[in-house]
Amino acid sequence: MEVKITRQKNEVTAALIGRLDTPASLEIAPEMDKLKADAGGTIVLDCSEMSYISSSGLRIFLTLRKAANEKGGKVIVKGISNDIRSVFMMTGFLNLFEIQ
Length: 100
What we know:
- It is a single chain.
- About 45% of the residues lie in helices and about 35% in strands.
- It is an alpha/beta fold.
- The chain has one domain (about 1-100): STAS domain (Transcription Regulator spoIIAA, 2-Layer Sandwich), CATH 3.30.750.
- Strands 1-2-3-4-5 form a 5-stranded mixed sheet.
- Strand 2 (about 10-20), helix 1 and strand 3 (about 40-55) form a beta-alpha-beta unit.
- The radius of gyration is 12 Å and the shape is globular.
């Protein structure tokens, strides 16, 4: 799993590339925790190159959403595949995030 973070004005984009399984979640957790500092603005999680997400990956998304809600920001999830959309639908995450 690879994470590419770019910052522009009041928006931070994290491009997630590969499989976000449990080992990958542990590996990228420090990078994703740094995004909490930007939670007052907009965080975009670009999943167009993410092929899989586990419950550990979903937990990372949820943690970022909580931080954004506390600071008045928002998290946008974009580019999810049909398989990941199904996971979001089954877990109720489609209702928690703005999906683009």
